[in-house]
């Protein structure tokens, strides 16, 4: 039986990007439980790059990812990975403290309600009493990014096996035996990039749970008819984080920004969350929803401190975590995968990641053992 240096469990954006980074430097097996990679969280992302989004560690990894998005390797994608969008953070007068916190960053500026309404004319004036604008935010072509990493991995010799959900992990002195729905495999290191299933994979390896919790997030595409041309609007995020929407191919992608704890599963939208989102859109704007074109839900998985978990387990040898990316997995994938590859190979973090203020201890699973 062939023995790989690394068996990466999970073919979403985390596993695919790490496999691509390790390709050519080690033998890598990429295992995906579904019939194709990216079925769950990666394929359901709202696809926005914003360096204001998330905590300090997330912001650092996002900033470090920007150069890759702007200039990916030759042949990575036929299309640009980023398209200009901008984000308008809008709130009622009672949200002034939230807007004040946002504009402390050099990435955002305070704007008046008149300017906010020029950007998005259909906002209700009371919902745009206090506003901030982040001009340097972008739509991400998630499909191009994910497929680019998968191509990069394949070109580097990574072997990909789908329909291969891991059902057992057993370790002898130097290797792991991975039992899956399609057969058994051997590897020196197991990488847990299983997204919402991360704690379950850890349990198979007799590693302790790190409390990586999946939360359901609902989204929908809405048709507002010919009321307005919304194609040039920025994304709109309610200051109180009660909802957001952004243009999507002549329609609007909207979400109530819900965060409902869930078991790992093929998440489905709840009718109540769809109704809440529709009501928020129609009460906070002058838009009237003509029809809901489609709706879906995805799982965003967070560690307790909302920072990704990247590094070798504190107690189980050669069990490597790459989990807890939350809703930031797409925008952080380039730099986080480079950091993860360095740590998996027991090397120092890339200098450009360190230069953004990140160190390995902030990502390490050991932080939960202290």
Quick synopsis:
The protein is of the alpha+beta class and 370 residues long. Helices cover 25% and strands 28% of the residues. The chain has 9 helices and 20 strands.
Characterise the protein shown here.
The protein is α+β, with helices and mostly antiparallel strands. The chain folds into two domains: 3-73 and 141-211 and 304-368, FAD/NAD(P)-binding domain (3-Layer(bba) Sandwich); 104-135 and 213-302, D-Amino Acid Oxidase, subunit A, domain 2 (D-Amino Acid Oxidase, Chain A, domain 2). Helix content is 25%, strand content 28%. The protein has nine helices and 20 strands. Strands 5, 6, 7, 13, 14, 15, 16, 17 and 18 form a nine-stranded mixed sheet that branches. Strand 11 and strand 12 (183-192) form a beta hairpin. Helix 2 (56-70) crosses helix 8. The longest helix has 16 residues, at 329-344.
From the helix content, strand content and strand pairing, which structural class follows? Answer: alpha+beta
CATH class annotation of the largest domain: Alpha Beta
CATH architecture annotation name of the largest domain = 3-Layer(bba) Sandwich
- Counting structural domains, the number is 2
Oligomer class: single chain
Order of helices and strands: EHEEHEEHEHEEHEEEEHEEEEEHEEEHH
């Amino acid at each position: 039986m062939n023995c790989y240096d690394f068996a990466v469990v999970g073919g979403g954006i985390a596993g695919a990007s790490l496999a691509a980074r390790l390709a050519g430097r080690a033998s890598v097996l990429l295992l995906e439980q579904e019939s194709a990679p990216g079925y769950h969280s990666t394929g359901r992302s709202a696809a926005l790059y914003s360096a204001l989004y998330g905590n300090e560690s997330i912001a650092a990894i996002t900033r470090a990812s920007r150069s890759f998005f702007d200039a990916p390797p030759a042949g990575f994608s036929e299309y640009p990975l980023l398209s200009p969008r901008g984000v308008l953070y809008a709130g009622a007068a009672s949200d002034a403290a939230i807007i004040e916190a946002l504009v402390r960053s050099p990435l955002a500026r305070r704007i008046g309600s008149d300017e906010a309404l020029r950007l998005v004319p259909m906002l209700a004036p009371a919902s745009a009493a206090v506003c901030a604008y982040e001009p340097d935010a972008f739509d991400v072509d998630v499909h191009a990014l994910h497929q680019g990493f998968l191509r990069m991995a394949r070109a580097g010799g990574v072997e990909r096996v789908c329909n291969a959900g891991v059902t057992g992990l057993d370790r002898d002195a130097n290797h792991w035996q991975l039992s899956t729905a399609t057969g058994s495999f051997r590897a020196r290191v197991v990488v847990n990039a299983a997204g919402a299933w991360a704690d379950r994979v850890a349990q198979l390896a007799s590693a302790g749970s790190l409390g990586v919790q999946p939360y359901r997030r609902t989204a929908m595409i809405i048709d507002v008819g010919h009321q307005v041309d919304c194609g040039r609007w920025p994304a709109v995020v309610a200051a109180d984080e009660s909802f957001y929407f952004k243009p999507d191919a002549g329609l609007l992608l909207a979400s109530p920004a819900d965060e409902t704890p869930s078991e790992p599963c093929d998440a489905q939208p709840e009718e109540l969350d769809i109704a809440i989102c529709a009501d928020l859109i129609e009460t906070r704007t002058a838009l009237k929803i003509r029809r809901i074109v489609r709706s879906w839900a995805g799982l965003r998985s967070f560690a307790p401190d909302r920072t990704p978990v990247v590094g070798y387990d504190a107690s189980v040898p050669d069990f490597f975590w790459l989990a807890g990316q939350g809703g930031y997995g797409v925008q952080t994938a380039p730099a986080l995968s480079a950091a993860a590859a360095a740590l998996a190979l027991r090397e120092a973090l890339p200098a450009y990641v360190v230069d953004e203020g990140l160190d390995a201890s902030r990502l390490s699973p050991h932080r939960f053992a202290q």
